[in-house]
Design brief:
Helix content of chain B: 10-25%
Distance between the termini of chain B: 66 Å
Number of strands of chain B: 21
Oligomer: heterodimer
Largest interface: A-B, 36 and 36 residues
Shape of chain A: globular
Structural class of chain A: alpha/beta
Strand content of chain B: 35-45%
Largest sheet of chain B: 11 strands, mixed
Helix content of chain A: 25-40%
Radius of gyration of chain B: 21 Å
Radius of gyration of chain A: 22 Å
Number of strands of chain A: 25
Shape of chain B: globular
Order of helices and strands of chain B: HHEEEEHHHEEEEEEEEEEEEEEEEEHHH
Number of helices of chain A: 14
Strand order of the largest sheet of chain A: 4-3-7-10-13-15-18-21-23-25
Number of helices of chain B: 8
Chain lengths: 482, 425
Amino acid sequence: MSAKEDNPLLDEFTRKEYEFGFTTDIEADKVPPGLNEDVIRLISAKKEEPQWMLDWRLQAFEVWKTMEEPDWAHVNYTKPDYQAISYYSAPKSKVPLGSLDEVDPEMRATMDKLGISTEEQKRLSGVAVDFVMDSVSVATSFKDKLAELGIIFCSMSEAIKEHPDLVRKHLGTVVPVKDNFFSALNSAVFTDGSFCYIPKGSRCPMELSTYFRINEAGTGQFERTLLIAEEGSYVSYLEGCTAPQRDENQLHAAVVELIAKDDAEIKYSTVQNWYPGDAEGKGGVFNFVTKRGICETRAKISWTQVETGSAVTWKYPSCILKGDGSVGEFYSVAVTNNAQQADTGTKMVHLGANTHSTIISKGISAGNSQNSYRGLVQMGPRARNARNFSQCDSLLMTDTSGAHTFPYIESKHPTAQVEHEATTSKIGEDQIFYCLQRGLTEEQAIGLIVNGYAKEVLNKLPMEFAVEARKLLSISLEGSVG
Amino acid sequence: MMETTVTPATALAERVAQAVNQAGSCSVLDARQSLAKAALESLEYPTTRNERWKYTRVAKLRDLRPASASSPSNIPPVLADFNAHRLTFVDGQYQGGDVVNESGVFIGPLSKAAQLQDDRIKALDQDYFADNEWFAALQAAAPQDGACILIPDGQRTERPILVHHHLTAGDVVAQPQHVMVVGEHAHAEVILWTTCDDQATGLMNGALTADVAKHGHLSLEIVQDEQGSSHHIAHQQFRQAESSRLTVRTATARAHWLRNDLHIHQGGQHGHSTFHGCYLPSGNTFVDHHTRIDHAEPDGHSDELYKGLAADTATAVFNGKIMVHKDAQRIEAYQRNANLLLGERSGVYSKPELEIYADDVRCSHGCTIGQFDAEALFYLRSRGMTETKARNLMVQAFLSEVLDGFRPEIQQHVEQVYAERLGWN
């Protein structure tokens, strides 16, 4: 008997419609599909970029042409046709930054539909939001207030124009152009993203947030985020993503670079809810993202991610623990359902002495999905007394889904300690039975157990995000087990 | 005219085939051999870009120029007072031993079993490694003599069978093929012991294929006590039928460069597999254990435990994969790998993998890399032990979880070798 017959609730969940599947009818300025030098020159010209930026892009393009798309991940998909994608799409009614009142009403409606009304956020929680639609940043709030503290939070294209020295100094230092196929592609064609600079010793008083949305059909989103935290500073950064429902696969190839100088701390949280495709696996977003942070002495980078969307995910937020005493953390919940495939995890590269890292990864597979954890823990020859603890748990909801673990553990220092443990199991029938006995419905019981299972990660999310993440998780897991 | 380019790998394959033919090969199944030859042409020579060979460097091996075998001299005695059926092989040639051929039980060299045209050796027909791995294909294309142990239904061996393979000095290539077929409700205990001359610089590229039928039980203890500076690649594959039991214990006592590829396929319900191993590379040596278990049918159980130390500038590699196939429900599979790093410049690379396509399973893996517990050392020293003695005791305790599973004679031997090598006696 299939799981579907077992439980009508599972059936309901499998057919659950994607909530953010609306498209916004905004006129877009879009270049014809295809990728060549002219397109890159056009993007650069449209963004009124300086010559050095164009040269950097063209160089990246040359590198990309020599590279091959990687196929080592445990995912199966038809490789996108890179000549069929439009590499630039901008909402035509470009608003002057910082003045939300002038935003196109349709765009405002989009933001409202996302459930992340910028105004509401502004009023209630004081979160500064940078909203990136398709490829271009459309609004950044709270800019002035942040500027008083010397904090720069703006779109990448604005940063290239207004803070070229900062961008030029740091861009591509953490994720080099040659790092991988998608980072090279992104370097050549990235259109926008967020830029954030926290000056020495300051503590960013509010959460910074970016919302990404792919709106136009036939476009890819290639955003580039650069976050620099100077000595002794602190910032918490949130990122959310949605896309409309489309039959074709859309490509999202982002690069995120974090730089935490001595004693700085960066907390980076993501709630990823790109369109996952329909129940048969048609459509959906390909999420091929390179995220990496570098920690100087005693710095700390903490990645927290809740991954519920995307047809195919290929994402390994990493920490290079370069400075002595630096700390890296990775907390992840990855939920896959229907035909989704995820290959996600982290890399903790311990270079300095007394570096610490923690990896907590919780995978939940339902439907016909495949969910893999792939992680690297590397102790370099100088990593005296370095310490790592990793835990990767997988929860299987159906007998047609898969859960896989591929950890790479490399140690080159005798005083370094690495611990890795992983378990795979399905939800305990005894646990459900216990809850039912106490008067909970099966749905509530599963919600309770799964939320408890993912609690270690959800607790790491900032308040505003935790609410959304819990909501997403409960939507994704409504009655999904037999 | 077609131009054929000879790559260094094909050149090596030709040199090896030539050397093997000169020394004497053991052709058992022609079809299998030609399949392997074809595979050898299509497969690529492994490099570190290949996921399965990521940490295992074989580039140097490509330049090996196999020499003809020297006359066997001073073959080291193995467990001298131990009561067993003994079979001895040198450089892939049968050297002598107690051959048994009565009431369906055959214990002897594969070449003899082939002469007798025993159908059971067709177990060699299926070869997962030879279809997928360059070195296994190299072996299967030019196999040499090895042990053949055939136990019919319901029988059991009175004494354990001790198979000893020795590699002589010089750049010698040996490609022995061992076969074990255990019938229904049958039981066999086998010890596979490999040694090398201290002047050995060659290549030992051996294969072992074993079939265990319904309710059969195969217990295998592998001891690798190899001197010299030879390379050793071992391809070990096991197929288990319903309710069968398999125990494989591997002790790498001494090796210069060694790679063990172990593959267990549970093709029947209620299979039970235990595979344990220990290793202790020191100096500039290299030990690699790759294991994979396929749970293809429900209700299987497996228990994997590999423990080891890496001293000086040595490197230890562990890769364990648990594969639970679709609909193979109620599997319990446990895997554990623990490592101690002793040398400032030693390294451990571990990759414990799980691939699971069924939901009602209990699988776990754990992996640790670290060093001696400073508090435990302090405790022992406060009781009056010297540091050397305390460390020795802790190594013994660390490895005992694996070594306790071996028969006492073997445990004692391996512990002694380890103690000698670390200079802690």
